[in-house]
Design brief:
two-stranded antiparallel ribbon, mainly alpha, about 475 residues
Length: about 475
């Protein structure tokens, strides 16, 4: 029998995709460290430092064969994670051992790697965000003209359409996409700044030639696929960056939470449901239950992502002078979990958005129960058109509306507002006149046109032509 006696992160075993797990994996992290060491050595060689092509080639030959047991043994001895990896890399590259990490401090690999990981994470988040929007777009167009009750204060208000409501969800995501693109376009590497950001060690290597130090930094950034480095820094890149990135993820979480909470309410009303599989169990006790488990999970994970922004905010605000090390342990948890969390949220969101179940008859029932109240303005206008006094009609309809509402709420009976109005001799309309005013499509305003215009002008231009494959969602 298999035994599991150590803590296991639910993000690994249950929630996050393999792609996002790889981005924050040891192989990707430490493999990027080695690529940064290669970029440093190769650039230093190109600029005349005594480093040979053979040494660079040896480093390149061992980019990904990381011996974690050797790293562990070195760290037990030196009590320093970066130097443990330097020694383990040097064991594999004996001819290059002496030039690994030349001129650099630990943050050269740790912080530049973190920026590259943030870049990769944001790229994957962007792809999944667009896939959610694509699926919601199809839903919005399909139901662009299906009338449904609109709600303000969670009370019935004027009619909207099922598709128009979906556009509100998409619009939130569009705003998130704008924020993500803004931050992603402004990512910068730390570069090679040294222990306090002065680049003193590199200035010494290049005999006080500042232009060469700048050129070294440019070459390294280019080799790592980046366009820019921070012009000034302490020992680390500004921790404000972490706060800005997690704020973007929090924004996506807020949008997802809004969608999932709306859907939970709609499922309660039996109007729209998330997918429910043939053999899925809703409750261990109540066999009839169809609980919105995916939407609830979206809300739960979104709360966690939103809460993690506080970690980054507090870290950014409490860095002392050129740096302090109380950020390290926190960032090892908060940054990966924020990305793994929003990855899981978007996987669930895409899964739900692609399988929404609509119940038109239940929607129509709720519309018909409330439509007489919403039709009163049109009824009043028609009565005035037939010669009645607007103020008199308004008062009579007000009295009848209150009485009908009391009948519905107090006695649990049907809405008889139209019968009351038809029997009122002061209102020059019969039941047939009013029935013609009860077509729900008369009360949805420009919803269909708004959906089509929004999708065509704002959504489709940002969507990829090809759908993204979303992995299996584990319930």
């Amino acid at each position: 029998m298999e035994r599991k006696t150590s803590y296991e992160s639910p993000f690994n075993s249950r929630y996050a995709s393999k792609e996002m797990q790889f981005i924050f994996s040891p192989d990707h992290k430490f493999g990027t460290w080695r690529r940064l060491w290669v970029a440093l050595a190769e650039s230093e060689m190109e600029m005349g430092l005594p480093i040979t092509q053979h040494q660079v080639d040896q480093l390149k030959a061992h980019l990904d064969d990381i011996d974690y047991e050797a790293v562990r043994r070195h760290e037990e001895r030196v009590r320093h994670d970066v130097m443990a990896h330097v020694h383990a890399y040097g064991d594999l590259c004996p001819d290059a051992r002496g030039i690994i990490h030349l001129g650099a401090t630990s943050c050269y690999v740790t912080d530049n790697t973190d920026v590259l990981i943030l870049r990769d994470g944001l790229k994957l988040v962007r792809q999944k965000l667009l896939e959610v929007m694509r699926r919601l777009k199809d839903f919005a167009l399909e139901y662009k003209d299906m009338p449904t009750l609109g709600y303000t204060h969670l009370q019935p208000a004027q009619l909207v359409t099922v598709g128009k409501r979906a556009c509100l969800w998409i619009q939130d995501l569009l705003m998130d996409l704008e924020d993500l693109d803004h931050i992603a376009a402004r990512l910068k590497l730390l570069g090679n700044k040294g222990t306090t950001g002065t680049q003193a060690s590199f200035l010494s290597l290049f005999d006080n030639d500042g232009a060469k130090v700048d050129e070294l930094e440019r070459r390294i950034a280019h080799k790592m696929g980046m366009d820019a480095v921070y012009p000034v820094s302490g020992q680390t890149y500004p921790r404000k960056l972490d706060s800005r990135v997690l704020s973007v993820l929090s924004g996506i979480a807020q949008s997802a939470y809004k969608f999932a909470q709306d859907l939970r309410l709609l499922q309660h009303m039996r109007e729209v449901e998330e997918p429910f599989e043939k053999n899925q169990i809703g409750s261990s006790a109540m066999a009839y239950k169809r609980n919105p488990m995916r939407s609830e999970r979206i809300c739960a994970l979104s709360r966690h992502v939103m809460a993690l922004t506080q970690d980054a905010e507090m870290t950014a605000s409490t860095q002392w002078f050129e740096r302090t090390l109380d950020d390290s342990a926190n960032r090892r948890i908060s940054l990966p979990e924020a990305f793994l969390g929003i990855d899981a949220v978007l996987e669930l969101y895409a899964n739900v958005a692609g399988g929404l179940v609509v119940y038109p008859k239940m929607i129509a029932r709720h519309v018909s129960e409330n439509l007489p109240f919403m039709a009163t303005e049109n009824i009043m206008m028609e009565a005035v058109r037939r010669g009645a006094d607007r103020q008199v009609i308004h008062e009579r309809i007000r009295v009848h509306s209150q009485a009908a509402a009391a009948r519905v709420k107090g006695e649990g009976l049907d809405n008889d507002l139209l019968e009351r109005i038809a029997q009122d001799e002061s209102i020059p309309l019969n039941r047939d006149h009013m029935e013609r005013l009860l077509d729900a499509r008369l009360y949805i305003g420009r919803c269909p046109e708004q959906v089509e215009s929004f999708i065509h002008n704002d959504v489709e231009p940002v969507l990829p032509e090809k759908a993204m494959d979303i992995g299996d969602i584990r319930i």
